[in-house]
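Let's inspect one such protein example.
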Amino acid sequence: MHSKPSPSGYLEAVAEFIAFLSGKELTLNEIMSHIVLVVLAPLNAEALTLDQLNDRNQVENIGRWGMPLEMIKDYVDIYSFNDRYPSTDTLRYRTTTYVTTLPDWGDDYPLLKNLPYTTGAQSFITIPIERAGTPVAALGVFSRDVIQPNAEIESFLTAVGSVLSMYMFSQGSSSHVLPKIKNVGGIAAHPYVDNSSNEFTERQQVILRLISEGHTNLSISELLGYSESTVRQETIKIFAKLQCDGRIEAAKIYKEMMANSNEG
């Protein structure tokens, strides 16, 4: 488990998120990957989901980042607001919801009973995204740590949700649809990437190989002698070049690329 960040660390993460979003039009994948890899790094985040309340009293998933593809297929993309899920609890009660029993979802969520989350994450937290004081979406965060709620963490997550809300609705649309985010609703396909136009640096090649071997950013930083922040920034660049949604897919693509290279 990571050591507890200082309050100033949370403030820096929020300030960085504001700077990242300022004056830009970004894809949903770009925003979600940045939240996981940079903004919520103090909470050891590994994956993210974004669910939205629609006009038919349903909650629909509009984006996932970092979840293994083999798990995504087992999770429903749309469900009734009356069903019991962490996201519906967050939307209904306008509160952050914490699940700290992963890989199992616990007794509060029987609809998820047969869907254990087995990546190594220990917590799932849903944050309300509000418009004019009304929750209209829920941001779900998977963390590799057991995240127990306290005042500092609650304030940090509330601030992250508020910043995202301001960006999402800054164009003044009356719709609940996220108006400013391009390519909403899709995780890009992941074909083999021709690296001729996106060549990896030698450092990125080494880091990608270590990712494929299951190393964390922290262990990579210790092995290579770089700061964990440097490794994190390099992983962001690697994921962008591979057009992938996280470590698991990056490792899979790398291994497939190596297998093809060996066959050639």
Notes: DSSP finds nine helices and six strands in the chain. The two ends are 42 Å apart (CA to CA). The first helix runs from residue 7 to 21.
